[in-house]
Structure formats: C-alpha cells, structure tokens
Amino acid sequence: MGKSKDKTAKSAKWIRRMKEMWQQAQSDLCEVRHSQIHGRGVYATCDIAKDDKIIEYVGELIDKKESEKRANLQAERAAEHGEAAVYIFTVDDEYDLDGNLPWNTARLINHSCEPNCEAWIDDTRIFIHALRDIKKGEELTFDYGFDIETWEDHPCLCGRPSCVGHIVSRTQWDELAKRKAAKQKHHQSRKRKPKVK
Ligand SMILES: C[S@@+](CC[C@H](N)C(=O)[O-])C[C@H]1O[C@@H](n2cnc3c(N)ncnc32)[C@H](O)[C@@H]1O
Ligand SMILES: [Zn+2]
Fold this sequence. Notes:
There is one protein chain. The longest helix is centred in the first third of the chain and has 23 residues, at about 1-25. The radius of gyration is 21 Å and the shape is globular. The protein has two domains: about 1-60 and about 100-145, Beta-clip-like (Beta Complex); about 145-190, no CATH class. Strand 5 (about 90) and strand 6 form a beta hairpin. The chain is about 30% helix and about 20% strand. The protein is an alpha+beta fold. The site of zinc ion (ZN) has 6 residues, from loops. Zinc ion binds near residues 113, 158 and 160.
C-alpha cells in the first residue's frame, strides 16, 4: 500500500513537471516550418523587437558526465544511421540541458553565420532572445558555438553572405580560416608532387 502510494505520488510529480515544461516551451512569437537551411526551422509569426524574449529552450538538466554519455551515444547513432541532430546545450561548467523533447520547439532553431537570435542563460534556464529587430516570416537562427575541432563534420548551409562554410563558433573564425588555408596548401602540394617514372 505504502509502495503504491509512493509510486502514485512520483507519477503525479513527473506529470506536473512535464506539464510545466510544456507550458514553458510555448510561444506565440514563432512557429515551426520547413526550412531553407535544413529540415525544419523556427520562424517569426510577428515582428519582434531587438532583445525581446522569444521562446524558452526547455529540457532536462543533466551533469557533464551524463551529457558526455548522451553525446557519445548520439555520435554512435549518427555513425550508424546518419542521425546527427544534437540537442544538448551548455548551461555552465557543471550542467547541460538536454532539449531532446518533442514539445521543445526551440530545439529546431537552425544555426546561421549571421544569426538574428542568441541564447541567454538565466541560472539553469535558457531563453532565446532577438539579437536585432526581426521581421514577421524570418527564420530564427543562432550561433551554435560549435568547437573548431569538429569543423569538418558540420558544413554550414545558412546561405548568408558572410557564411564561413562550416558551423563553428564566431569566436573561432580566425582559427577556422587558418585551418582551411593549411588544408588547401597541403592539398595543392600533393597535387603538384612529381610522378616517379
Ligand atoms: C538541433 S537540429 C536543428 C533542427 C533541424 N533543422 C531539424 O530539422 O531537426 C541541429 C541540426 O540541424 C542541422 N543544421 C542546423 N543549422 C544548420 C546549418 N546552418 N547548416 C546545415 N545544417 C544545419 C544540422 O544537421 C544540425 O546538427
Ligand atoms: Zn553559414
């Protein structure tokens, strides 16, 4: 009897948390549509002013150990079936947020080299804000901030004039240019290698 009461209380708590997360993930300012960049994307349903809060990126708060485990699992799945989407967001040095929940609309926001949004972290919550005024119908994007070490795995299709061709944090664009130039040089010197007769 005690055990079943305990189970019921746990289940009610879990349902309350799910409902709360679902409510937190709602926004009238954006909707999901087919994207020109990749798969599905998120679009503004009205004009949005610079700095306005657009939507919360909801998910499960996990520690770095659990996060690494999930990221590795994701990488294995990607290698096997080509599923490459990663929904884990860095919160701070201790925690990440796994946003892989069907009602987390913000998880579908694509990356752009000229983003119109950015993520603001408030304690352990993540909110997507407008980086500039956004017109109704524009696709929402932010800088995924991917590390330079994986640049070759993530070609960028954002199509913006300043696109650097790969999804890499803007803070590492200088390093990206250096690595691309070095790769190009290596490629050319291999092409020019004389043939041994
Ligand atoms: C979190 S999902 C974003 C939603 C995705 N469009 C979808 O339909 O599932 C992240 C994945 O979307 C793709 N993506 C996002 N931005 C991109 C971009 N600028 N260029 C190419 N692919 C992009 C990549 O495959 C990335 O791993
Ligand atoms: Zn780009």
